[in-house]
Amino acid sequence: MQFNLADVVETVASAVPDRVALTYEDQDFTYARLDAEANRTAHLLAQAGISRGDHVSLFLKNSVEHVTSILGLIKIRAVPINVNYRYTPSELEYIFTNSDSVAVIVELPEHQRVLASLLGSCPKIRAVFVVGETADELRDAAESRSVAVVSFSDSHDLPTTSDFATRSGDDLYLLYTGGTTGYPKGVMWRHDDFFRKPLSGGNPYGDESRRDLAEVAAAAKEFPDMSYLIAAPLMHGAALYSLFTFFTLGARVVLKRDFDPRKVVEAIEKDGVQVILIVGDGMGLPLVDEMERRQGEIDFSSLFSITSGGALWSTSVRDRMVAVKPDLLLRDNFGASESGNDGAFTVDEAGNLRMPPSPNMILVDERLDEILPGSDDIGFIARIGSVPLGYYGDEEKTARTFPTRADGTRLSVLGDMGRVESDGTIVFLGRGSQCINTGGEKVFAEEVEAALHAHPAIADALVVPVSDERMGQRVAAVIATYPGSPELTLEAVQEHCRTALAGYKIPRSMVLVGEVKRTPAGKADYGWATTVAST
């Protein structure tokens, strides 16, 4: 069977209508109520002229309306476009135009004013849906360009019926990457492939994909009453994957407006949270700081797992979390916008990230030939099976990232480097684009960052290459320390790193900053770090 995401969510809503689907800032929405609200949103969008295949940008922070917009759009076979709400005007213009968006859903007054200034350079936008009050600037700009302004509240009077056209597994879901460098790219997923790979076929805790909607419904009825808190913003791929995964299971999603470590920790006790999804150390560090501060004050008994996805998660942060709650299960998901959910890492005693053997993941050389298990060669980690169609509107990058082998097998090759052991286990080394070549030796930034994060005074750190006359490149670190920490010297950092890293991997220079800059989803901003480290 070919799965459509809207069909899957509606199936679960029918199977467990009275179960809580979403808790947002102390508001509970059952599956029946959330589905009804999504139907109203779908009717609102359709009434305003949004139809099959139309692209609609979601310029929104986390909210109930954000969730119902995603669901409402896929119900009418339109395509949601995730938008990083902290982008500059030029970056926003790029997203709106590159995605060919015909409409934008927006909320905050400051976001509405930015959108107003961009309507003149985004000629394909023909409608704006406003959550809350419409800013005067947006109303005036829309009127002057014959752009319709629709109040999101108008959906309250629309029907809750699901009388929509038949959908297809070939319907498109377009996910814009939250890349660490350059402009993001729109990854094109068929709904069926999205269900089978990012959503693990509706069975993330098992080996086999669900075969049909009847199995999805039956599994949702049997799934235990579990609460998952998504700490990341919904514009992030890992958060979207998790949202749909948990809805497919019939679980309860706990969502906050912003990532606030204090509110996340308090929700563990208040909402009975059992699993928290974070994005790497950018969220893990402040979260464990708060967990340590509130230990003895907050009841952590419901919490049994913290999962990281979308960015690497250092051993030191994991160790501190386990120190707060020794029975905590920590999971490090491996995946990307271009590959979906590839499974979970394990971390060995040396801090190496290891991926168990999988039929959907191999190691290839530059010619795309498979590197056999047991080889000492370093190669590219390649995904096979349900992979995206490519990048929207970019055939050149599509051919480079999603090549086809001579036997017709399509691959997703993102630049992740690794080696494969004799039993088929793949050891992750780092992203090739962040590989530093110092005197011919290869250093992966992620490995050095993990060592730095283990220093008790370091709150966050990024590692980048800077030019070096003798070595070509040298390892440089941009570091933020905890308030009140003793002054940190390069010598102290180097001494700390020598316990975990070979000599050539140790930072040769460092810059101390008040705060390490990351994206709102917690990913590293390596362009910023390179500029800082090079000055």
Question: Mind explaining what this structure looks like?
Answer:
The chain is an alpha/beta fold and 535 residues long. The strands form five sheets. The chain has a 13-stranded mixed β-sheet, with helices on both faces. 31% of the residues lie in helices and 25% in strands. Among the domains are: 5-14 and 28-210, Rossmann fold, CATH 3.40.50.980; 357-424, Luciferase, Domain 3 (Luciferase, domain 3), CATH 2.30.38; 437-534, 2-Layer Sandwich (GMP Synthetase, Chain A, domain 3), CATH 3.30.300.30. Helix 10 crosses helix 11 (280-293). The radius of gyration is 23 Å and the shape is globular. A hairpin with a 3-residue loop joins strand 24 (458-468) and strand 25.
Can you describe this structure in just a few lines?
The chain is α/β, with parallel strands linked by helices and 535 residues long.
Please write the CATH class name of the domain at 5-14 and 28-210. Answer: Alpha Beta
What does the largest sheet look like? 13 strands, mixed
Average pLDDT metric: 91
Helix amount, in percent?
25-40%
Give the CA-CA distance, first to last residue. 56 Å
Low-confidence stretches: none
The backbone outline, from C-alpha atoms, is globular
Number of alpha- plus pi-helical segments:
16
Architecture per CATH nomenclature, i.e. the level-2 architecture of the domain at 5-14 and 28-210:
3-Layer(aba) Sandwich
Question: Structural class given helices, strands, pairing?
Answer: alpha/beta
Strand adjacency order, main sheet: 2-1-11-10-12-13-14-15-16-21-20-18-17
